[in-house]
C-alpha cells in the first residue's frame, strides 16, 4: 500500500514536492511577458529600461536583442526604472511580445509607441500603428497573433492609467474604457474590435483562429469574441476567475495559461499568485500555486514551453522556470 500512496502524494499537482523551480536572472526589473522564436530560442522579454533581451544560455545570460526607441542612449537608459516621465519615452517601454512564427517577426506593444515589429535579427523596431485615425491609444499592454490569418490583436487598458498608477485605486475604479484592437498586416489597417472592457491586460487567439480571448483585470474574468462561425462578432463570458488575471498564453495543444492573482486590499494590497490552465471551452483544468516562489509578488504571465512553465512578473528581477516532475 505504502508505495502507491507515496506515488499518489508525489504526483498530486499542487504538492510543493512535485516540481522544480529555477530562476533566470534579468539585468533589471520589468519582465511583463516572454516570447520564444520558432527554433525555441528564448525567452525574449522586455524590461523597464526599454531593452528587449534574449536569454542565450546560462553562460551568456540575457543579452540585448532589440529596442523600441530609435535613439536609445545606453548609458542613460540601461538600468532605468522606466517610471521617470522624462526618460521613459526616450528609452521606450516594451510590454507585450509575441512572435509570428510564419514570418519570424516579433510583434511588440510599447507603452509609448504603440504597436511595433522587429525582424528575427533584432535591432530597432518599426512602428506600425500609433494614435492615428482619430482613435488614440491610452495604454497598450497585451498582444497576440492569430496563428491562421497573421492578424495582430492588442489591448488598450484604458483611461484609468492616466489618472492613477496606484493598483488599489485601479482595482476599485470600475473603469470600463478598455478596448481590443486589431492590426491587419496585409492592409496595414488598425481597427477597434471590442470596447467597454474592464482593464483588458491579456489577449490570446485560439489555435484554429475561431476566437480571441481578452482578460479583464478588474472584472476577474475572461471574455471571448468569436471571429468565425455562426457567432462571429459576438462576445460572451468565457471564464470567471477566483482572482485578477493578466496575460493569456496558448499552449501547443490549444489550451491556455493565465496568471490569477488573488488580491487582498486590506490592510495593504497583497497578491497570492496562482496559474490556471483553461481549455478551449473555458473549463479550468489545473491550478498551480506560486506563493512558495513569489511570496506576495504579483505575477503577469504563465507560459508553457517545452514542458516547463515560464513565469514572468514585472516586479521580479528574474524569469521563473517551473517544472512539474514526471511520474
Ligand atoms: C493607493 O491608494 C490607496 C487608496 O486610495 C491608498 O490607501 C494607498 O496609500 C495608495 N498607495 C500608494 C503606494 O500610494
Ligand atoms: C464581423 O465584423 C466585420 C467587421 O465589422 C465584418 O467585416 C464581418 O463581415 C462581420 N462578420 C459577420 C459574420 O457578421
Ligand atoms: C520570497 O521570500 C524569500 C524568503 O524571504 C526570499 O528569499 C525570496 O527572494 C522572496 N521571493 C520574491 C520573489 O520576492
TrEMBL record:
Pfam families: Str_synth. InterPro entries: 6-blade_b-propeller_TolB-like, Strictosidine_synth_cons-reg. One of its GO terms (molecular function) is hydrolase activity. Residues 1-18 form the signal peptide. Keywords: Glycoprotein, Lyase, Signal, Vacuole. It is found in: Vacuole. Residues 141-229 form the Strictosidine synthase conserved region domain. Its EC number is 4.3.3.2. Its main location: other. GO terms for cellular component: endomembrane system; vacuole. Belongs to the strictosidine synthase family. This is Putative alkaloid synthase/Surface mucin Hemomucin. It comes from Handroanthus impetiginosus.
